[in-house]
Amino acid sequence: MQAIYARQSVEKIDSISIEMQIQQCKRICRENDAVTVWKDSGFSGTTTARPAFQQMMEQIRSGKIQEVYVYKLDRISRSLCDFAAMMRLFRKKGVTLYSVQERFDTQTETGGILLHLLMMFAEMEQKTIAARVKDNYYARAKRQMPLGGIAPYGYRYNETGHDLVTEEAERENVVAIYLAYGVKGWNVEQIVQSINRQGKNTRTGHHWSNAGVLRILRNPVYVRGNYSVVQFLQKKGAVLEHPTEWYCHNNGYVVYGDPHQRQGLKFSHWEGEHVTAGRHLGIIDASLWLAVQERLDWRGGACNRGTGSCSWIQGLVTCGLCGTRCYARNNGKGAMYTYFVCRGKRLGICTGIGAVQTHRVESCVAGVLRKRCMELLAFETGGEDAETISQKDAIALGDLEQRIHTLLGALSSANVSKDVIQAELERLVKEKKEKETTLRVKQMRQERDVSLFDWDSWWKKAPLSVRRQTAGMLLEEVRLYPSEIQIQMR
């Protein structure tokens, strides 16, 4: 089967559309063969986390696709490492990659060499684009302009796209959140429940979460800035990019910085964060904003303090009624046991599944993991991969023997230095012995009995981190219902 893959991250007037890419690929496809089209819209080529791409790769792994056509190589990948891994799979499965723009296929030696060279240039181009975007990002901050992307909740971009203006309906919700927390004394969970029960969803139509409300409460984009706010940020270690006077005209602030150097959550840890004086008018009075920050600091409400130490499947468990993640907690005083709680109940969008003890769920999941792991071990010790490894070793051993025979024949030639040949022979004989030893060890490993592995003993001694890692590799999701548990494997 033939496959066409097309991708476009952002629709631009001067860029080739997905439909045009598909048409160009069909021009060079062989006729009378089945052609399947895979297309990703709005996804970058720097990552392989693209739905259609992953579906196509699954078809390739199962041997259903023999040829892949792309308009240009950077449509399928912009990362040299990802591309190299993809081509290893293509070669293993006998899949040929054709490119319309570069006019070659990977079956030829020249095509393979050009392929790697072009991918190197594609990766370099992507890094150049990323550097330009980063430079523009900081340049906009210096000029007190929004940094791009989606406007903060409560604002929208004006006609020029250079300034923020308030969005009235969202502005009212922001004010209500601040008043509830800073004046009424509600906690974040009460605010979330109240908003969701009123049917006031986020801009994307989703239910509000604790993290979403906390982000609004911490963000200085909403403050009507004055000197007191400047002092607060300076004490916290923030870097103010402009003269102090610029921050004192009831304008909101914009925060930016390198996410890789950030010490904690954005808006929670100010050390090293860059704060620029925005040109937009703030929504929340400075005294109320500062009062909210003081209460948040006192309660530690902006920090994610969960360690996942209550259960090794924490993060994989969801409520079967509403689909939200469940979190694990202990039963309070004495901490006799831990249990899973539906987060949707806290958000006011679900009746909840009741308190399900974690050890009961873990016991069910552990049994399924044991069965799956033993199946994988049996496959690993006698499957196709093991046979392929042995064949590669045998071929390498045969190549060494052929070279040894060739050198032995060259010893009779008077035109070649016998000392040089003798030294090379000794090296090849030594390498052959090492290959033979390696081959024998691998064969011994393949012949081992899987039943010798004591899963129960290993699992009992495994620390929480190892159990969590094992579950993450094998489990997709664990859904809890009032009367049953559904376990979905990867």
- Arrangement of strands in the largest sheet: 2-1-3-4-5
Enumerate how many helices there are, as a single number. 16
Q: Based on helices, strands and strand pairing, what is the structural class? A: alpha/beta
Strand content: 5-15%
Mean pLDDT: 79
Beta strand count: 16
Tell me the layout of helices and strands.
Layout: E1 2-8, H1 18-28, E2 35-41, H2 51-61, E3 67-70, H3 73-76, H4 80-93, E4 96-99, E5 104-105, H5 109-142, E6 155-157, E7 164-166, H6 168-182, H7 188-197, H8 210-218, H9 227-235, E8 239-240, E9 251-256, E10 274-281, H10 286-299, E11 317-319, E12 326-330, E13 338-342, H11 343-347, E14 356-357, H12 358-382, H13 384-410, H14 418-446, H15 455-461, H16 464-474, E15 475-480, E16 485-489
3D structure, described in words:
The chain is an alpha/beta fold. Helices cover 48% and strands 15% of the residues. It contains 16 helices and 16 strands. The chain has a five-stranded mixed sheet with strand order 2-1-3-4-5, sandwiched between helices. A three-stranded mixed sheet has the order 8-10-9, with helices on both faces. A three-stranded mixed sheet has the order 11-15-16. Helix 6 packs across helix 10, helix 12 (358-382) packs parallel to helix 13 and helix 13 (384-410) packs antiparallel against helix 14. The radius of gyration is 31 Å and the shape is globular.
